[in-house]
Amino acid sequence: MRSKSSHPAGAAGARHAGGVIHVRPGTAPAATAKELAHLPQSERAARALEQDRGAREVPIDRAFLEAALDLRRTLRILVSAVVPRFADWCFVDLIDGDGVPRRVEVAHADPSKASLAQEILASGSGPGWATPGAQAIRDRAPRLYRELTNELIEWATHDERHLAVLRAIKPSSLIAVPLVARDRAIGALTIVRSEMVPGLDEQALVFAKELAVPAALALDNARWYQAEHAARCTAQELVDRERADLLEAEKAQLRLRRIESVAGSLSGILSPSAIAQLRNAELAQTAEALNAQLAALRVLQVAGAALR
């Protein structure tokens, strides 16, 4: 029988209205699995201990405000409110521009499972919105599985690889709640206990639902700001390109006028000696006007039709 650790798993004091989150000074709450994957286990453990030093407790609502419309920080604050003090695993899915749920964040309590977390991050919802999180988005209803049987695990996965990954984390209970902001579902929060006992229950479901309220609004605000900022940058790039094209057109017009002026000056001169006097100055100016490295002038010889 698999042994389980006895971490305190109650939701008391963790509700978002009065709960707190440990925030590292001057940094985001936690490193992502991708950032830790390339490090050896000893280094990951050392980093975790170092990050915990000097951490301060901040009310969750205020922590979301302090994220200052930064989507990455907001996601990390959300998962840090869950892992490791409340659950072993936490997944966040957000609806993309095509209306498809995409997994954007995975947090885990055990640093040695960074590679497994990457597999979970890549698994997504699959075709048919098979996962509990995707189903919660679809009908905007929370789900509580106090015990995850093999049949439930098979139902909650969309292919063999996804099934193998979910079995690898050995989930014992699961909660999936929709993230609803401005009366529309923007994603889902999935919480899983594997080693932590007891399993998730109705009290944990209340915690998850209350956490999802400020989290959804903060994520929606951050994504709106991100999209607005990207749109402004695109518009500014368009303006800059138009300004550059206009300047280039003006330069081309000035060069054309310069060429016409030189051609006019030379066409009014009949004697070769006069042309010779203007040769160096006028040709140099013409070459400069055209950004050319070489300029040549040819005239008809006095006797005959040859050019010189």
Condensed summary:
This protein is an alpha+beta fold and 308 residues long.
> Could you report the average pLDDT, rounded to the nearest whole number?
77
Instruction: Work out the number of β strands.
Output: 7
Number of helices: 10
> SSE order in H/E notation?
EHHEHHEEHHEHHEEHH
Overall geometry comes to: rod-shaped
Q: Strand arrangement, largest sheet?
A: 4-3-7-6-5
Q: Tell me what portion of residues adopts beta-strand conformation.
A: 5-15%
Structure explained in plain terms:
The protein has helices at residues 33-36, 41-52, 60-66, 71-80, 114-123, 132-139, 150-155, 160-168, 202-267, 272-289, and strands at 20-23, 56-59, 89-95, 101-108, 143-145, 173-181, 184-193. It is an alpha+beta fold and 308 residues long. The strands form 2 sheets. The protein has a 5-stranded antiparallel beta sheet with strand order 4-3-7-6-5, with helices on both faces. Strands 1-2 form a two-stranded antiparallel ribbon. The longest helix is centred in the C-terminal third of the chain and has 66 residues, at 202-267. The chain is rod-shaped, with a radius of gyration of 34 Å. It starts with 19 loop residues before the first strand and ends in a 19-residue tail after the last helix. Residues 1-18 and 24-29 have low confidence and may be disordered.
